[in-house]
Specification:
The protein is of the alpha+beta class and 212 residues long. Helix content is 27%, strand content 29%. Strand 6 and strand 7 form a beta hairpin. The longest helix has 28 residues.
Length: 212
């Protein structure tokens, strides 16, 4: 009889243990929502340290204090794995972050925006990323709407260009730069009805210094 009672206690204990394990496992699984990213991609929804930098990707983003006081934050956000191109997938994109600010003068129908996009790639792929990105978006030669401009080297390598586009109200001018430093690729754009090359240059240089 004692043997039977002990066996019963053991079975009861094992049942309780199994229930606890199953409950704990369900709790862990429920943390991850939505489709799982492909094998080898990060699943954490929190920005993790940017490889080779010792900082999180959010730490690399421009802050309001980096800009003139009349610029206002419009958006600051991580970029999800589903929001990138197939080319980025092929190049083993790891993390992304974007910020944007604007300055508005309603009296003169004048608006200027500053935007920044940051992407992290493996060290072995970063040069290919820079080359392919530049070939895809930088104007070649000179034309009426866009051309490369002289610009100090930002980070490890960089290229800058100026573009114009006519709107019903005014001509929109934009200054753009893409640069790489360590494992980071950034694109910064200053665009609007009023633009300032010197401010654009300063912002780009400040952004590069944020990358260790």
């Amino acid at each position: 009889m004692l043997y039977d009672m002990e066996s019963g206690y053991q079975v009861f204990f094992l049942l309780i243990l199994c229930v606890m394990v199953m409950a704990g496992s369900a709790g862990c699984i429920s943390v991850v929502t939505g489709p799982a990213p492909p094998s080898g991609q990060p699943i954490s929804v929190q920005p993790s340290p940017a490889p080779g930098t010792g900082a999180t990707i959010a730490d690399l983003a421009l802050q309001a204090s980096d800009l003139p006081s009349d610029y206002i934050l419009r958006d600051r956000s991580v970029i999800g794995y589903g929001g990138i191109s197939q080319l980025d997938h092929d190049l083993d994109w790891q993390q992304g972050y974007r910020t944007s600010f604007y300055r508005l003068d309603k009296k003169h129908d004048d608006m200027t925006t500053i935007s920044q996009q940051i992407s992290i790639y493996p060290p072995d792929n970063i040069n290919a990323v820079y080359r392919l990105t530049g070939n895809a978006i930088v104007p070649s030669g000179y034309n009426a709407s866009g051309y490369q401009i002289p610009f100090p080297t930002i980070g490890d390598q960089s290229v800058a260009w100026r573009e114009t586009a006519d709107s019903p109200q005014d001509t929109i001018t934009s200054y753009n730069v893409i640069f790489v430093k360590n494992t980071v690729l950034e694109r910064i754009t200053l665009e609007g009805t009023t633009t300032d090359y010197e401010l654009f240059r300063t912002i780009a240089q400040d952004a590069a210094t944020r990358i260790p």
